[in-house]
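Why do we care about 3D structure at all? Because function follows from shape, and shape follows, mostly, from sequence. That is the central idea of this module. The next example makes it concrete: a single protein chain, its amino acid sequence, and then its structure expressed as tokens.
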Amino acid sequence: MNAAKRTEIFQRLQAANPNPTTELEYETTFQLLIAVILSAQATDVSVNLATRKFFPQHGTPEGILSLGEEGLTEYIKTIGLFRTKARNVIATCRMLLELHGGEVPNDRAALEALPGVGRKTANVVLNTAFGQPTIAVDTHIFRVANRTGIAKGKNVLEVERRLERLIPKPFLQDAHHWLILHGRYVCVARKPKCPQCGISDLCEYKSKTPATS
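And the structure:
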């Protein structure tokens, strides 16, 4: 795919959604961090249903620590891997208080040192909370980048680095959200909605879903 095509793709995605953001619900950077930790291998919808029950009263590091691991588990047991996530969240709250004064660090290494925080989670927080032009490659972005030809790669890190290099600079800050939403609702895994896709004519996917008559 050439640079002109990429530019046109992101111009269209921007025109359709000028101010994209995460579908996770949060009020503070800390709540965003916790929501993203919980969202690993889970849907944003399931995470929002759970966090609505405890963020209002316990949405601070101190508040979640006061619940304890068992108390938090009760709130998040509808989410996949909930026991591991409860353990990681409690440990993260403790580290934030002990090492960062209860604040979420604006630094990749410090974020990735927190339990339950990998590169993808750190990228989401750096992008959404701190305005850094990072790309958190999840299954949706990996699929869209490879399928469309925007940035092909064999693994997540390869796709992330190619996207950061190939996406035109004016679109880099919001590209993460546009690509996730496109993969979630249009360029879906099993049967992409090519007839309804606003960038179908620019996409290099060979097996496009035909329009039904």
